[in-house]
Write a structure and sequence with these properties.
By secondary structure, the protein is an alpha+beta fold. The protein has helices spanning 3-14, 86-100, 124-140, 146-161, 168-175, 215-234, 248-255, 260-284, 288-305, 311-321, 349-364, and strands at 19-28, 40-41, 43-56, 61-66, 71-76, 108-114, 180-185, 191-195, 201-211, 326-331, 337-345, 369-372, 380-381. Helix 2 crosses helix 3 (124-140). It binds alpha-D-galactopyranose. Alpha-D-galactopyranose binds at residues 32-33, 35-36, 165-166, 168-169, 333-334.
Length: 383
């Protein structure tokens, strides 16, 4: 993204000078569907981002323009309502949350562009929310902490996009650091950076180029199933507040007989939380082979037990399983489409991409897109 182009596009539309904010998309090494269960996640920010150019207005109006949709939207801070344009809702949802927290801020102009592939499970929506929160905070000197910017953005997603997401995506978009993964404890919100030492290997994303429509409803349903499991256990073990506090024995004892579906979903989450803890050590010790095995195990669980995969994702993971130079692979993010994340030996990347492109095309008549991931920094002001 070229800063000068962003600025001049903004000037053409709004006839004034902007400041620029950049918020990245994210990957997740391991720890899927654990964030809303108070577990651990291990995301990293990437070098693809959403860019917003913004300026303050002297009224209470919000004027938006999205480059990729070539669409405008106008709203008012006095009465923030959901729009029928989904891109605008991420911005309006954030403004609404900041207002609900009692902050006063002036109207603003916002021009939006970016290079995070949309609908690919790289959290372009979280990036847009975080960029908006960062921009409103900056323009009005509100003094909102980084963690609160992430939490505000998450709440916007719940209320204006209708997805009861966890905190991982917004956290990664705010706190990311180049060459680092982050180990976040979603119960205490404490986190540490772990250097992404990949020594001769790289992270490759393979984009299925599908996003099945049940993604959002299934996501919310999984979350309720996890909460149901916790509620049943809590009847007997009152100190349990989330699946983070739950053992496999408790699931066996209190949930299995009640509902096999809920049991399988909760079992996956408890196992996945344990995998992230192991993975953090393995990454820190440079044991990529062991980490790769855990990623395959995560995929298996997401596909068979948690049931958030799809045939396209399963195909991509199965294809690389015995491929020379691939030591780990799994679907990434909420599921039902988007990308797989793969640890691949440098020299094998090209061959892998060539072969899998043909195989995927032959099977689904669809193009698979490959991105060799570069990590990047979290939300920042570009000036
Ligand atoms: C989506 C959500 C995240 C997280 C993942 C699954 O990306 O936004 O909060 O739950 O799915 O790990």
């Amino acid at each position: 993204m070229d800063i000068q182009t962003l600025k001049s596009s903004f000037r053409k539309i709004f006839q004034t000078e902007p400041v620029l904010v950049k918020s990245p998309g994210r990957i997740n090494i391991i720890g899927e569907h654990t964030d809303y269960n108070n577990g651990f996640v291990m995301p990293a920010a990437i070098n693809k981002a959403i860019y917003v150019a913004v300026s303050q207005r002297d009224d209470q109006e919000i004027h938006l323009y999205a480059e990729s949709y070539q669409q405008k939207h106008v709203a008012s801070i006095d009465q923030i309502e959901k729009s029928d344009k989904s891109w605008a809702n991420y911005i309006l949802g954030v403004a609404d949350q900041i207002k609900k927290r009692g902050f006063e801020f002036s109207g603003f102009n916002l021009y939006l562009d970016g290079n995070v592939p949309l609908g690919a499970g790289l959290s372009s929506s979280a990036a847009l929310e975080c960029a908006t929160a960062f921009a409103i905070n900056h323009l009005n000197n509100l003094g909102i902490s980084q963690m609160d910017l992430a939490l505000i953005s998450q709440k916007a997603e719940h209320e204006f996009a209708g997805v009861n997401c966890g905190i991982m995506d917004q956290f990664a978009s705010v706190f990311g650091k180049k060459d680092q993964a982050m180990m976040l404890d979603c119960r205490s919100m404490k986190y540490e950076y772990i250097p992404l030492k990949l020594d001769g290997y790289r992270l490759v994303l393979l984009n299925t180029n599908v996003k099945h429509s049940l993604a959002d409803s299934a996501y919310n349903e999984r979350r309720s199933q996890c909460e149901q499991g916790v509620a049943w256990i809590k009847e007997y073990e009152p100190e349990v507040n989330s699946l983070r506090d739950v053992s496999l024995e408790m699931l066996e004892k209190y949930v299995k007989a009640k509902d096999m579906e809920v049991y399988r979903k909760c079992t996956f989450v408890v196992q996945e939380i344990a995998r992230v803890i192991k993975a953090a050590d393995q990454l820190a010790n440079g044991d990529l082979t062991a980490l790769g095995k855990l990623m395959f195990a995560t995929h298996e669980g997401l596909s068979k037990d948690y049931e958030v995969s799809c045939k396209e994702l399963d195909f991509l993971v199965d294809f690389v399983r015995d491929f020379d130079g691939v030591i780990g692979a799994r679907m990434m993010g909420g599921g039902f489409g988007g990308c797989t994340i793969n640890i691949v030996k440098d020299e094998q990347i090209e061959t892998l991409i060539d072969k899998i492109t043909i195989a995927y095309q032959n099977t689904f008549n669809l193009n698979v897109e490959a991105y060799v991931v570069e990590t990047g920094d979290g939300s920042s002001l570009l000036g």
